[in-house]
Amino acid sequence: MSHLIKTTYSACLFLIFCGLSNVFAQGDNGTDVPVIDVLKDLEKTFNVSFSFADSALTNVRILPFQGGVLDAHLSSIEQQTLIVFEVLSDRFIAVRYIPDKQVAICGYIKSKKSGNPVSEAIIQSKNEIIFTNEEGFFEIKGIAANDSVLIQRLGYQPRIVNVSSIRRQNCNNIYLTERISQLKQVIITNYLTQGISLGPGGVFSLEAEKFGVLPGLVEPDLLHSIQSLPGIHSFNETISNINIRGGTNDQNLILWNDIRMYQTGHFFGLISAFNPYLSHHVDITKNGTNAAYGRSVSGMINISSDNNIVQEFSGTAGVNMLNGDLLLKIPVSKRSSIHLSGRHSISGLWKTPTYNTYFERAFRDSDLFNPSANTVISDDQFSFYDYSFHYLIDLNETDEIRLNLLNIQNELQYTEAATVGGSLIEKTSSLSQQSRAGGFQFKKQWNTGFNSSFNLYVSRYNLNAINNDISQNQELKQTNEVLDFGAKIEAGIILGAQADLSLGYEINDVGVTNEENLSDPNFRSLKTEIVRTHSAFGQMTYESKHSGTLITLGSRASYFDKFGQWRIEPRAAVTQALSPKFSVDLLGELKSQVTTQIIDFQTDFLGIEKRRWVLSNDQDIPIIKSNQLSIGVNYSYQKWLVTLEAYRKNVNAIITSSQGFQNQFQFVRSPGNYLVNGVDFLINRKTDHNSSWISYAIAENTYEFRELQPVTFPNNVDITHSLAGGTSVTYERWSGSAGFNYRIGRPFTSPNPQVETIDGAINYGSPNSQRVDYYLRLDLSLKYHFKVSERTRGQIGVSIWNLADRKNTTSIYYQLDPSEQINRIEQEALGRTINVGMRLNF
C-alpha angle 210/837/807, rounded to 5°? Predict the structure, then answer.
């Protein structure tokens, strides 16, 4: 396998260099000539004299106008350039070069494949958005000649066109290239807020650049934002514990540019590790997952960066009370550009009140806040950062290359001091969490009916801790590492106007290492597991012309060579429009995964990170399998949207040590399953300036462990009832949002009131028979948008999380102290947290 991958990788690198040579070797093969030469010819032909500065016009080239009077020549030059002519007399004409000259443009948008007009295409400039008419025609009467417009239409590849290339007098044709596999339609846009859309099969899409304001968020944090969608929540408010229809976070497939990520949060889960202004598009799938994706038994969150090559330099920079960030989009040539981004915490400069609130929430249950007796903690330092690099190359009209790199880092360090034997001893403990990812993608459009893609990726996750215990004179070093490497090839075939087919193959190697080194007594534990998976997949989509039927059927066949096992996983998504207002979705899938997270409260990483990745061994850690079936109804009419979806989800071969038990099952490893039956319901009303929503979810999530007593009991993340609502408003330069979140508390297990301890251990009652108090949070956000210059826009925002400062308990568990007294531990969510941010877009 390694030889095959190296050979393929070398071939792709060769294609990169060939493509780069092609890009930089391209020249202008047209008939344009220097404008200075044209002016000199006009002077001779019409006996006039032009006055101008040679330096301003040296690099200006035009297509010369053939024949006609002098005015026609001058008008042609003005339309093609930033030049304005001022007639001083019958013979003398002044030539002025105005970079921001306002011009008028027009054109006809047509399909490159069929030549037919493209109606309702979006033409977006810096100052306005218009749509093409039924003939594909558009016109903008006032726009800077050095500007550009973005042309978009569902089913076509977006295109950026320079104003200087669009002539108003001719109203030229502008062609859009159709996308392969674009039968999928959008049911509704601006779902809950701007930038969120709902498609067939209940697939939600988030467009970061269009994203509106959601309650409690000063920045469009993607992984917090999706928790506003029905069926998705986090029982402890973190993005490292996202539960999609009752599944645990390690059962979600989280992709960044088709690379699986094993770390998703900064502040150890309190905020997203993905720069929200870099992430261009996010798809969230709860059921009916595309057959091209496996390796998870719950939901899928697919994050994609901006795939468009820019022709002008642009960027955005911002700062809030947690971090500062910068994103730059840099054109390299007409066919290539570089996107750079970086984000870093500002705690090294100023530990803001917001930072202090987050810091306490993240570490209050750790050794940092709970040191050993007679130990003093000092010089605590925490920081986080992420940066990314994207190189986008279009070798020609049909071939493209994308290179993506990402680094995510969290670092904590503090000093412990204690007096031992009359001497002061100081030692440093630290925790580092890092993810690095790289991907190479090559796509080719062979013809209008066939395309292919090749994806090579690597993802590496490291969690390293050094824990010094002065009182015990011990040093414990811990490591959890995941190395995920793979390649995928896929082909897309258009079978006709109503159907398309995709076929592909993926090979994936995952290695997981867990290591512990203890100094006194000397002890070392090292365990490495590797699983290689071969997967073939195929999927067909059919859309009827008149009956409103959209059917997607697929299957994924995976072979786990370490275990010698095959698994066939069919997928299905059917959408039927019953009328222009009503549609019905029927979804189903089988899925599996070989990675899971073990939760160990005794050998955690400094009491902060309690989870470590492990691999299936087909013995005490089996391959996890799931099946899900759902049916939903959507009603959309004018300003209203109503969705109702019922589902049944069964996940098999989980183990107790992956569920985070803090009761009588904490030290037990037993196989089992869980079953979730639920209904998601939402009402959304939107107008031009307002969107209001109320969502309700009811679910029953039940464990079954046949080796335990009792066999069945509520799941640790069983949230039987949850209710959320909100409203977002835009008015002139202001935008704001307010909302609430309510849910029943999660289950917990209390000691048996009759006999609380037996033989120095807690004697628990019935597992998960009690519940934490209900959760209620009110949030508010407000933004003001302003103009700095013609090219620069700004915004100032403020958000308040938990406006009422309500004490929300997320978990309850019990511990014995040294005197064998039972202590009740209550973990609390964030209190009132205010964040303020400022941003400039240029």
Answer: 100
Within 13 Å, how many C-alpha atoms sit on residue 753's CB side? 1
Structure-token pair, residue 625: 């399998």
**What Cα–Cα distance (Å) separates residue 781 from each residue in 63, 728, 742?**
52, 9, 18
3-state SS track over 485-515:
EEEEEEEEEECCCCEEEEEEEEEEEEEEEEE
Mean pLDDT across the chain: 87
> In a 3-state reduction of DSSP, which class is residue 37?
helix
At CA 541, angle to CA 538 and CA 547, rounded to 5? 160
211/200 Cα distance (integer angstroms): 21
Query: Closest Cα to residue 70, out of 98, 95, 100, 46?
Result: 46
Question: Distance between the two ends of the chain, CA-based, in angstroms?
Answer: 46
Run of H or E including 38: helix 35-46
Place of tokens 């414990």: 476
What span, in angstroms and rounded, lies between the C-alpha atoms of 163 and 82? 11
Residues with Cβ within 8 Å of residue 802, at least 6 apart in sequence: 216, 777, 778, 779, 808, 829, 830, 831, 832, 833
More confident residue, 319 or 475: 319
3-class DSSP state of 355: helix
Which amino acid type is present at position 205? S
Q: Is the pLDDT of residue 377 over 90?
A: no
CB count within 10 Å of CB 715 equals 22
pTM tops 0.90: no
* Residues 82/146, Cβ–Cβ less than 8 Å: yes
The torsion angles phi and psi of 340, rounded to 5 degrees, stand at -120, 140
- Bridge-based pairing of strands 595-599 and 611-615 is antiparallel
Predicted pLDDT at 262: 96
Rounded to the nearest angstrom, the gap between the alpha carbon of residue 687 and the centroid of all alpha carbons in its chain is 27
Question: Residue 47 — pLDDT band, cuts 50, 70, 90?
Answer: confident
Do residues 745 and 772 make contact, with C-beta atoms less than 8 angstroms apart? yes
Distance CA 13, CA 32 (A): 35
